[in-house]
Amino acid sequence: MKNYITLLKENDLKATIQRTSILKSIDQAGHINIDAIYEDVKELHPTISLATVYKNIISMKTNHVIIEVPMNGEKAKYELKKEEHIHLICQKCGKIKDTKITKQIQQALIVDNFKLNHSQINLYGVCSSCQER
């Protein structure tokens, strides 16, 4: 388990019980939408509101603690910020698989006189499980 308190403090956020619970939920799921985060956190903290979860998600996204992964036709999913990677998103089941960015892709992304701070590459298709159905 990651140290969520340190993660928050390193990103200039106060380490509240709500934020650490939200981070734990995201970390355990890998990729999760806000409704599922709310249901998960509500089990431990029954008085938490959906508005509180939204507010904290926005704050942690703004401070680069978590990443929002857009989904076609569904609510976005969230993940903890980690090293640069590509999302392979299944348009049938909604599962997201992380895959490393190859050296060829890194070299192809190099642009003269442009310093890349971060990227998000989302590829949409159909996973092998859904192709077999």
List keywords for this structure.
three-stranded antiparallel β-sheet; alpha+beta; 6 strands; Dna Ligase, domain 1; three-stranded mixed β-sheet
Give structural notes.
The chain is an alpha+beta fold and 133 residues long. It is 41% helix and 20% strand. The protein has a 3-stranded antiparallel beta sheet with strand order 1-3-2. Strands 5-4-6 form a 3-stranded mixed beta sheet, with no helix packed on it. The longest helix has 13 residues, at 17-29.
List the helices and strands and how they pair.
Layout: H1 4-10, H2 17-29, E1 32-33, H3 34-44, H4 50-62, E2 66-69, E3 77-80, E4 85-90, E5 96-100, H5 103-108, E6 121-125, H6 128-132
Parallel strand pairs: 4-6
Antiparallel strand pairs: 1-3, 2-3, 4-5
Helix pairs in contact: 2-3, 3-4
How many domain modules?
A: 2
Spatial ordering of strands, largest sheet: 1-3-2
Radius of gyration: 16 Å
Shape: globular
Order of helices and strands: HHEHHEEEEHEH
Proper CATH architecture of the largest domain: Orthogonal Bundle
Poorly predicted parts: none
How many angstroms does the end-to-end distance come to? Answer: 35 Å
**Number of continuous helical runs:** 6
Q: How would you sum up the major sheet?
A: 3 strands, antiparallel
Going by CATH, what is the homologous superfamily of the largest domain? Winged helix-like DNA-binding domain superfamily/Winged helix DNA-binding domain
Q: Please report which band the strand proportion falls in: under 5%, 5-15%, 15-25%, 25-35%, 35-45% or over 45%.
A: 15-25%
- The CATH topology of the largest domain corresponds to Arc Repressor Mutant, subunit A
Number of strands: 6
What is the typical, i.e. mean, pLDDT? 91
Helix coverage percent: 40-55%
